[in-house]
Every structure is written in structure tokens, then in C-alpha cells.
Amino acid sequence: AQTVTQSQPEMSVQEAETVTLSCTYDTSESDYYLFWYKQPPSRQMILVIRQEAYKQQNATENRFSVNFQKAAKSFSLKISDSQLGDAAMYFCAYRQGAQKLVFGQGTRLTINP
Amino acid sequence: DTGVSQNPRHKITKRGQNVTFRCDPISEHNRLYWYRQTLGQGPEFLTYFQNEAQLEKSRLLSDRFSAERPKGSFSTLEIQRTEQGDSAMYLCASTDRGWPSGKDEQYFGPGTRLTVT
What are the φ and ψ backbone dihedral angles of B53, each rounded to 5 degrees? Predict the structure, then answer.
């Protein structure tokens, strides 16, 4: 079974600085998708960024980028120029095909003004 | 596009009672997923539907849990004889495209928070 591990329960960063959230996963499949989701306090889960495993190029979305290391099964999220609105729980997730999402335990990100 | 909606948003019930939650997916989304999220944890998959067919059920979904999507639109999740361990946030998500396009994104609802006393 696929598993996703986030080893940082909490992270904090100064506003306008850069922070990297870590994620590792385990799978025997070669074709899959990886995601970072953001869950603000008492608000619903929203997709931050996605990465297709067959793509070598790391995905970027404005201030958000990933470092996808397929051989190492590592998928970290970098947030540049951190903003107060980035404070949330961040979940790394794996999906094969159109199947269910498998989530990590989450990292709580605090932005210090 | 009004997003995924879930009702009720909060439910407090006594142990042993039955509860039912509803999820309305984004219009015309053919896949619908249920997840359970306990405090401080990531969501865990419960079950999913393609149209009205329930295609997969997690082992987390005990006999006390049942889900339906009768006309391939909204879905209900019922928990019978609730236990304190059922206290959690129940999340619903929907998506509009299936394999092999792979370009589907699961849109999540706000969740139903269940407290069993």
C-alpha cells in the first residue's frame, strides 16, 4: 500500500522569507500524481500544486514550487515570499490514476509577522 | 459553479444514535469521494462513487457505515449506532474527469464535524 510521510509536524517562518516543507512517499508504481493541499483553520481543503510523476520538470505555481525527486521518493514544497495568508495545515498527497488520495499527517505552518 | 457543499456543518449526537450526512458535489462531477479526518491528522479515504456506482470501500468503513449516491448526484453517508471513536470531520470531494486524462482535481467541501458524546 502507498504511504505518505510528513516528518515536520510544525514549521514557522518570518513573513517574506522562504520555507520548505518535506514529504516522502512509498510506492511501487511508476505512474502517479503528487499534490500539496492547504487547509486553513476552519476552512476547506484547497489544492496548492500538483506534479505528474512522468514529468521531470518541477511544478511551479506563482510563489509555490516543488522539488520532486522520483528516485528518492521525495516531494518537498517551497513557499517563497511567505505571506500571512499562507498560514495553514499543509498536506502532501499521492494519487494513482483517478483513485483515492492518500494523505500525509500534515505540517502546520505558522507565519511570523 | 457553487462548489461542493455539505450538510450539516456540525452534528452533535449521543452514542448509539444514527446520523446521516449529505454531500452535494459540483454539478456534473461524476466522481464523489468521502474521507474522514481526525484532529491533527490527514484525511483518510472511506469510499468513492462513479456516478451511482460505489467502486471502492475502505476497511475503515465498518458495517455501521453506509454510503449511497442514488441518482449519481448528491451522496449520503450514514453512521448507525455511533461510537465516540466516530467523532471526526467527514469530508466530501468531487471531480469531473476520470482516467486516463488524469487532469482531474478533487474539489473538497467544507466538511461535517461530528461529535459523539
Answer: -85, 130
